[in-house]
Structure formats: C-alpha cells, structure tokens
Amino acid sequence: MASRQWNSYVPGLDKGKGLYFLFVKSETNTPGGLTARPVLTSYYKSEHFKSRPYDPYNVYTSPTAAILCADAFQSMYAQMLCGLLQRLDVLRVGAVFASGLLRAIRFLQLHWKELSQDIAAGTLTAKVTDPSIRGAVAELLRPDPELARFVAAECSEGEWAGIITRIWPNTKYLDVIVTGAMAQYIPTLEYYSGGLPMACTMYASSECFFGLNLKPMCDPSEVSYTIMPNMAYFEFLPHGGDGHVPGAGVDTAQLVDLADVEVGKEYELVITTYAGLNRYRVGDVLRVTGFHNAAPQFRFVRRKNVLLSIESDKTDEAELQKAVESASALLRPYNASVVEYTSQADTRAIPGHYVIYWELLVKDSSSSAAAAAAALARDAVMERCCLAMEEALNSVYRQSRVADGSIGPLEIRVVRGHLRGAHGLRHREGGVHQPVQGAALRQLAAHPGAARLPRRLRPLQPRPAQVECSLRGEPVRPRRGPRGPTNLPCRLASLVNPTEMPISSR
C-alpha cells in the first residue's frame, strides 16, 4: 500500500517518523557457491533501500547503518537509542514480526540504565564498535540530562504496562505481523502498548508479493488479504476438512483458479512467478473470507505441517521426530529411552523457546531408577540431549538461536511416566532423584504456538523451578558438513507433575 494511502486511515503520518526495529540476518553459501540469505536481508542491503528517495510518509528513526549491522546487540542498541532520542517524533512503532518488537521491549528492560547514561552524557557506549553506527549516532546524540531522567524514571518503576505509549506518547499504532504463529504475541503487545491498534498491512514471502489488507486498522482476528493478481499467477489446492493436504506433488486436476475459489473453504496457495517458479506450493493454508469487487480475500490460517514456531522458524513433525531420535541416542548407554513425547512453543518469556516433554523408560528393571537418574545427572546427559536436539533442527532455527538470539534455549521437561514394569525419573532441585509414576504422554501434533497437550498435562503457572546450564564450544556448523559441539546454551526444567495440573478444555 502506498504510504500516502495510509493517511486516509491515520492522518498526519507525514509529520513524524516510524520507530521500526529492522535487522539483517547472516548469510551462507550453497555448495555451488551461491549466496543464501533471507529476502528482507537482500532488500535492506540493496541500493533500492540504501539509496531510497526521501518520503515524508516513510521516515525511520533508525539509521541505515544500524539496520545493516550484522551484530544483533550493536544494531538493537543503536536503534533503541535513536528511537529514544527522537521519542516525540515517533508516530508508529513496529518490526517485521510481533516477536521482534517484543525483543526490543525486552532489550529496553535490560539496558535502560546504559541507554540513560549515554543520553545524559551525550556519548555512545564502547560496546558499540561499528564505525558506521558510531558516526550515524553521533549526528543525533547530544547531552540531554532531562531525557535521561525521564527514561530512567519510566523504566526504573518496574511497571511496564503501556510502556510504549508512555515513552513514545504520539504513537498511533503498531506496525507488525500478528497473523498465523504471531497471533500468540497479541496479548503481550496489548499489555506493553496500552491497547494500541495493530496494523497488518501486507501478505508476502520470499517467493513473491501476494496481497494487501485493505482494512489495515481492523482487529487482528479479522485480518483478510486481497490477492493482487498482477504479482504472480495464483492457483489454489483444496484443503481437506480433516486437515489433510495432498502430497508434495501438484495434481493439476485439483487446482482451482483465483476466480473460482469459494467463500468459507480452505486452500493451499500455489504460485507461478515471473522469476521462474512453476506451480510452487508456498505451504500457506488460506481461508476465503469474501470478495473486494471481484478479487477474493483470504485469511491466513496456518503454515502447512508446522508444529513449532517462535519467529521465522518453522519446525514440522518430521524434523522434531528426527531431533528427538538424535537426542535419545545419548540415553542408550544408561539403559534409558524416550517412551513418548510432546512439545509446545513457550512464548511467556522473551525470547520464546521450544519446550519438549519427555517420558523416560529405564529398561533394566534390575537397577533402581534412582541409580539410573543419578548417572544421567552425573554425566550431564540431559543437557547434552538439549544440545543434540538443537543441532538436529533446521538452519533457520539454529541461526535464530546463535546469530540474533530471537529464540531462547531449548528446554526438556521430564514428566512422570506410567508403564507396567518401568520406572520414571523425577528431577528435583539439588540433584535428588526418585522413581515416580503418573499419567503417560501421548505423542501429539501441536498447532503453532500452542501445545495440544493431554488434558492433564498443561504446564503449571508459574513454571516449575529450572536448572540452568550453559555449554560452550564451537560455533554451529552447516548441516551439510560434520557437526561438533556448539555454543548453544540449554535449559533443563524440573519434572512436571501431571496430577498437579489444571484440567484443560483443549
């Protein structure tokens, strides 16, 4: 949507600026020598972005140098500092994904003292070493003790409800993606923003641009996108009512043209693009909600087969199964194995992280469960299981864990098992273990962002006590090569007692 068209929804956007937290991701090379990187990274590094003409409706508080910095801390620090320096000019706050904006708020919670000191002194912390960032920030930064006291007063109170509108009082809306897996962040964004509208403006992917939200200020639950037929040739594969989507190939006889879709039905998006993709299955499941004139409008329902998602990561059931198998191999020397498991994406903390629930079986009935548990603890087996799982997951997940910290450490929770002749393991703080019994897990598929756990196995509120550990080693290597230890921290939580959990209607 052209920037000026926004004026019909939010007047006066040409009188201020947007505080957008934008970042580049690291790049890799394919075996053939081609550069592989996210589409937004390509855009930010392009001359089209770096040399974009002045547009009063599209002015950022963040210097381009800060956006292009590959160091996540330096980039975030500079963007937050510049946003604070220009706080009264900010009319909208945003990021690409809702999770990205929440990471920015979390960064402010952790670093407001340093930011206040820099504002008061008019100097930039030595932790920011990038020369281009230092030069860009120096053009804005002047000693401002009054602003420093204001920021410190707002952040030191410990009351973070409505912090966005308190620090940036002229903010009119949040510009973030809150559909699909990002919908899980809506309540937290409402808390921090004091209930500001959330605008979902467009629907696009690495493959092409799909459509626009013609009512950008609508409630997030009502967002529908109008497909733009000039962007590509769009076809639709009917999605079965039982949740089944046909296999990887495309049966052309099943494809439905854009003009023939039916309201209320769900389809998987298939595109043929100017760049050369031919009947490519995007993997998005859409529901037809209506028409704008003759153009169909769609609501994003979910990504096909995605089990877990925190941000741009998409982990399906097969990937998770492979990761569990890889990690459970570490249990074999201890005559233990994973009987069943389930999972959820926990977004209560920032950043969110994967939680994997394991039911363990000690196979050697002649040995006590306590002895087996003690051996597992002594050799830090569960911590190594966390690392093994993270190494087995896809490159997008691992990049988000290591490069920018947009995903937190993976967590394994051992739950009480109930199998005849088997012993479960219970982990307590202090390393005390004992055999236990309880309700068994069923292996389940989960909707992105919300675990479909058995009725008696919802996580406790608040979380059980956790044992934190941090393992350091070599950086994560590409999956096509040999992998060694990584520098990924891991998290092992105490046992979750199913009998203590509230019954869920899920």
TrEMBL record:
First and last residue of the signal peptide: none
The GH3 C-terminal domain, residue ranges: 319-416
Region described as Disordered: spans on this chain: 471-490
GO CC field: cytoplasm
Entries under Pfam families matching the protein: GH3, GH3_C, GH3_M
Keyword vocabulary terms for this entry: Ligase
Residue stretches making up the GH3 middle domain: 225-303
A single GO molecular function term of this UniProt record: acid-amino acid ligase activity
Family: Belongs to the IAA-amido conjugating enzyme family.
Name of the featured protein: Uncharacterized protein
Organism annotation: Musa troglodytarum (fe'i banana)
